[in-house]
Amino acid sequence: MGEEDYYLELCERPVQFEKANPVNCVFFDEANKQVFAVRSGGATGVVVKGPDDRNPISFRMDDKGEVKCIKFSLENKILAVQRTSKTVDFCNFIPDNSQLEYTQECKTKNANILGFCWTSSTEIVFITDQGIEFYQVLPEKRTLKLLKSHNINVNWYMYCPESAVILLSTTVLENVLQPFYFRAGTMSKLPKFEIELPAVPKSTKLSLSERDIAMATIYGQLYVLFLRHHSRTSNSTGAEVVLYHLPREGACKKMHILKLNRTGKFALNVVDNLVVVHHQDTETSVIFDIKLRGEFDGTVTFHHPVLPARSIQPYQIPMAGKVGFFRGVWAAISPHGYSSSWIVFQPDIIISASQGYLWNLQVKLEPIVKLLPDKGRLMDFLLQRKECKMVILSVCSQMLSESDRATLPVIATVFDKLNHEYKKYLDAEQSYTMAVEAGQGRSNPLLRRPVRTQAVLDQSDVYTHVLSAFVEKKEMPHKFVIAVLMEYIRSLNQFQIAVQHYLHELVIKTLVQHNLFYMLHQFLQYHVLSDSKPLACLLLSLESFYPPAHQLSLDMLKRLSTANDEIVEVLLSKHQVLAALRFIRGIGGHDNISARKFLDAAKQTEDNMLFYTIFRFFEQRNQRLRGSPNFTPGEHCEEHVAFFKQVFGDQALMRPTTF
């Protein structure tokens, strides 16, 4: 398999830690994404490493027994260590605070602590087999205050730090899940829900395993993912992942089913809003995108893998005296195939305790372009990815290339999908601006400026990276080039996006280049190309190639009700001196214009014959208006008269006409 075929990879700079062994125990904290290497119960040192901080935290603890769980509070302020099933020990890491340990016993009698979760820098939850206890830690007093508790039989628990939700498994079958939500010192009980277990023979003991459940935020919504090894319908083979949407308010609802079409051992990750399912037997992974259209049966949407199954790109690990290659997640962690020492954590973490590595899983978008031939579906997929801009622009360039040329309907579909996202952003930006102008910002603290994601490709992006290079391609049939340009303009108009003048200019220049003046005339006559000042100026400059362009330009300027002197300024700034003069004559204003302004502009072009023409025009105007071709002192044209004499000689000056 070529390197270009892998669409999943492990990050380049993993977090390295001391390998797990009989002396060194390794723990992972999902909230802070930190790995703890605890040697000899902490007596010979604890080293804490996270993906963002390259400076590890090192300290020693007294060996007071086997460490069951160890985690820092958010911001690394307080360390919590569980060594027994009844208590959790605390130690402050705040400057000027006592570093003496203090202990909290769980409140419920005869309860055993299953684990704990920090929900802020000073708030912690104990999960016991008999319920949940929510505490505030008071570090300066070295004590804890119980904020709230709830009694319920607990089999196991799961925590999603991104959404601050803890899920408790209850009942004998372990399949009734009770969520709790934590925020700023409050604990809210959300509606409980039941996970539907697969239909199996009565003799089989069945319960919901913690291994088959994951929690993750996908497209901003919290989901509980259930890996169901046997489908509920007997005619369907293979396992499936069932997604339950867990809202802040309202009941949990089954929304999506991801069809794996295979059986065996699986592991789940979520990367860039994609559900990644790793399969042990084949050492491959597949990805699902719940935003892509699936098969809806009235209740849930069924999804199939977006792409064919592939291994994770092999990762090269320097080993003592040799280099080891790691294939996929399975072998990535052990050169001899599947190793039980690798563990996945949500959303995108893979850890090898035996090798001492923590990776973030990543999606590579470039290989997906080749694996997903349907351009419409490819665009739907890419537009939802975080780092999509340059890949989308390259897809657009590719579909306009000679070798991979797409059909016009496909090109139209791609443009429409791009402009749909673009319009959504423009509307959100406009709503935000109007709300701010109306003074809603003060009364509504939730008012936020819309974030411009990489999926927003505006006209300058498409013009700069795609269309300007495309029109230069000599091998492309010009009819196709014009059709593509008009298709993009049509799409912008369809979404009511004002077309930038440079796109119209591109169309006009392409038409002129191929002498398609009749088409240009029609486009202007039927307002296919929108009126604008820059467009009118461009038309004025085309008069020498296509004489009717002058009148077309004047008509456009009249429709725009533009100030005439403004148009003259624009033309002069573009060195279109003759066009400016013709325009001003066309509207009858040539007797009042400043001769110096036009002579300055003509001189700047460094075209002596143009200067001669303009100079002669004003001499003739002076003769007609004042009976003499000479300039008056008030016109300040002395330097231009001197320049004219220098280049063309005194004899070239116009002599006064006498009758």
Structure write-up:
- Helices cover 29% and strands 26% of the residues.
- The strands form eight sheets. Strands 20-21-22-23-28-27 form a six-stranded mixed sheet, with no helix packed on it.
- Helix 4 (408-437) packs parallel to helix 7 and helix 7 runs antiparallel to helix 8.
- It is α+β, with helices and mostly antiparallel strands and 659 residues long.
- The model is unreliable at 320-339 (pLDDT under 50).
- The longest helix is centred in the middle third of the chain and has 30 residues, at 408-437.
Quick recap:
This protein is α+β, with helices and mostly antiparallel strands and 659 residues long.
List keywords for this structure.
lysosome, membrane, five-stranded antiparallel β-sheet, 33 strands, alpha+beta, six-stranded mixed β-sheet, 659 residues, 16 helices, WD40/YVTN_repeat-like_dom_sf
Distance between the termini: 94 Å
- What percentage of amino acids are in beta strands? 25-35%
Structural class computed from helices and strand pairing: alpha+beta
How large, in whole angstroms, is the Cα Rg?
Answer: 36 Å
Biggest sheet record: 6 strands, mixed
Mean pLDDT: 85
Count of helical regions: 16
Q: How many β-strand runs?
A: 33
Helix percentage: 25-40%
Shape: elongated
* Strand order of the biggest β-sheet: 20-21-22-23-28-27
Question: Uncertain segments of ≥5 residues (pLDDT<50)?
Answer: 320-339
Oligomer: single chain
Would you spell out the secondary-structure blueprint of this structure?
Blueprint (H helix, E strand, L loop, with lengths): L7 E3 L4 E2 L7 E6 L4 E6 L6 E4 L7 E3 L9 E4 L5 E5 L4 E6 L9 E4 L7 E6 L4 E6 L2 E8 L4 E9 L4 E5 L4 E6 L5 E8 L2 E4 L3 E2 L18 E6 L2 E8 L11 E6 L7 E7 L6 E6 L2 E6 L4 E5 L6 E2 L4 E3 L11 E5 L2 E5 L15 E4 L3 E4 L4 E7 L2 H6 L3 H8 L6 H11 L8 H30 L2 H4 L15 H12 L7 H17 L6 H13 L3 H9 L7 H9 L6 H13 L3 H10 L3 H10 L8 H10 L3 H19 L11 H11 L11
Parallel strand pairs: 23-28
Antiparallel strand pairs: 1-33, 2-33, 3-4, 4-5, 5-6, 7-8, 8-9, 9-10, 11-12, 12-13, 13-14, 15-16, 16-17, 17-18, 17-19, 20-21, 21-22, 22-23, 24-25, 25-26, 27-28, 29-30, 31-32, 32-33
Helix pairs in contact: 2-4, 3-6, 4-7, 7-8, 10-11, 12-13, 14-15, 15-16
